[in-house]
Amino acid sequence: MSLIVQSILYATTNQKLLICPSKEIWQCTSSLIIAAPDNFNPDSQFPLPRPKPEPTAPTVTPAPPTPPKAPVTPALPIVPKPPATPAPPIVPKPPVTPALPIVPKPPATQEKPAAPSIRTSPPRLTQERDQIAAQRAWKYFDRNWNPQTGLVNSVDNLPWTTWWDQGSALLGIHAARQLGLLSPDLFQQRMNTLLKTLETLPLPATGLPNKAYSTRTAQMRQLNDTPDPKGISGWSALDMARFLLGLHIIRSHYPEYSDRINRIVARWNLSKLVKDGWLNGGITGTGGKIREVQEGRLGYEQYAAHSLKLWNLQANNALSNPPVKTVQVDGITLQVDERNFKNSGATNYLTNDPYLLWGLEIGLTDAVKPQVESLLQVQAQRFQRTGILTAVNEDSLDRPPYFLYYSIYANDQPWQAVNTRGKSYPQFRFVSTKAAFSWFALMPNHPYSQTLRNFAQNLADKNRGYLSGRYENQKLGVNASVDVNTNAVVLESLLYQARNKRPLAF
After folding, report:
1. Strands, E, within 16-114: which ranges?
2. For 323-378, what is each residue's pLDDT tens digit?
3. Whole-Å CA distances, 86 to 26, 79, 202
4. How many CB atoms lie within 10 A of CB 213?
5. What is the separation of C-alpha 214 from the centre of its chain, rounded to a whole number of angstroms?
6. In angstroms, rounded to a whole number, what is the distance separating the alpha carbons of residues 232 and 206?
């Protein structure tokens, strides 16, 4: 099917300064605009060119398994969550400028190609199905890596990207190298090509990478893939956090690239990513000027803040003072963000993605583990109750609106599948391939994660890689969209397994 890029996370539209009657710190922090969880997605009213579909062999996908008639007790206990602690009614402290990593200035001489790392006892996949899955996911990278720049397409056969997607690409290439899918010489070639591009990457006046770029020319683009020579699209703190996490993992595991990466990052004005302890992004304002906005909702916000800590950027309010409340979904207690579409102009998606990435890449904290366990439990319970295999996520679609956020809870309603403007599309609820692989990697002994993993094994195109998933409505069949995030996360989850559940950052 024809595919269209919808960028991976959230749009900010029609945001206005709040007149603050509340003493809640998240509502009243000076100079902040309450904005979307992430602020960089175009809507389908600004479509990108649709690449021509290529003929492929039919995808062989098993039908969703039938749940047992008798109720099955979930393997995870129902753990009551502590009540949300509201932000203290105090005047915020003056903003503290986060410390930037101390790195040397780039030399004038040309960089020599790095020698490959020497690593002992590399992780290996021992199960045949895991080896097959890794080879399938790597197909995407072979098809969509651009030799001119070292960047990877966000969606199959479309030369455009965001930095969230390039964070995924870095982690996918790292996983492929560790799992033996990519030779040391080829890995070195790809890393040197990418780093050379980053060393000369055009930057807007903000001093931060623009939200979108061409993967063929590395020139700045808008979110609808039109030229953006002045870089007026702004920046995304969540995007940059994921890309910086990817760069940190590369510099940690391949120290021969460390100096180069540090010099690249030293070009960027990272202090703009955090403001008053919150994640801070930029959107196009009046007259092409950049307007700064708060980014992040519960889950994504903390995943990004932990990622930025690896670069000595401290978003303390994002980590310690998020406005949360507890809700019940099918009798299971969950924490959700109080900043919903009605009171902030942005949806408070409670979905799998940030928690799964957090676990695979950084490692879950003890404080968040009960929330993660309940997320899996409520999805398993829905399967037992309805017979509908459930693995929610934010994912690209192969049909309008081309991107949805399928959440356990959003805007005071359970099981919502909505676009960036809050419009509901319940007919397009889907099972997410990357969520299925990730849940099994994190909790391999849970019977429901095993069910998900078995179901997702063959959700792939033999030439293009893993598909985004399958629609819950069996008449619609597979969700044939193919993108970098799905295939990168499949590889990440397999590497996490091969490393005996050790997070990729360490």
Report:
1. none
2. 999 999 999 999 999 999 999 988 999 999 999 999 999 999 999 999 999 999 99
3. 10, 21, 42
4. 25
5. 19
6. 9
212 token code pair: 């979108």
Rounded (10°) angle between helices 163-178 and 128-144: 130
Distance of CA 299 to CAs 231, 320, 323, 483, Å?
29, 12, 12, 22
Helix 258-266 and helix 184-199, axial crossing angle in degrees, nearest 10 = 20
Contact of 104 with 263, CB cutoff 8 Å = yes
pTM greater than 0.70: yes
Q: How far apart are CA 330 and CA 352, in angstroms?
A: 17
45-75: pLDDT as tens digits: 333 433 333 434 434 444 455 454 444 444 4
Identify whether the C-beta of residue 156 lies closer than 8 Å to the C-beta of residue 139: no
Measured CA to CA in angstroms, residue 421 lies from 76, 282, 301, 340, 411 at distances of: 35, 19, 20, 12, 12
Decide if pLDDT at 267 tops 80: yes
Region 84-107: mean pLDDT is 41
Q: Is the peptide bond before 444 cis (omega within 30 degrees of 0)?
A: no
- For residue 469, give the amino acid letter: G
Average pLDDT over residues 394-408: 96
- The predicted model gives 298-314 an average pLDDT of 98
3-state secondary structure 426-445: HHHCEEEHHHHHHHHHHCCC
